[in-house]
Amino acid sequence: MKTVTKRIFAFILSLSLALSVGLTAFAAASGDLTGDNKIGTGDARDILRAAIGLDTLSAAKKDAADVNLDGSVTTADARMALRVAVGLEKTDGKLYKNQYDVLRSGFFYTELTVTDSAGAQDLLIGASADATYLRMMFADAELKQEFGVDAIEINLLFKGEKAYLLDPANRAYGEFPFEEMGMSKDELGDVTEAKEMFSRFPALDKATSKETGKYKDTSCTVYTFRADTGTLKVYMDGKKLLAIAEYNEKNALDVLYEFRSVALTVPTACTAVPSGYEETDPMELMIALFFGDLLKDLDP
Question: Which of 66, 182, 188, 237 sits at 20 to 30 Å (Cα–Cα) from 35?
Answer without folding.
Answer: 237
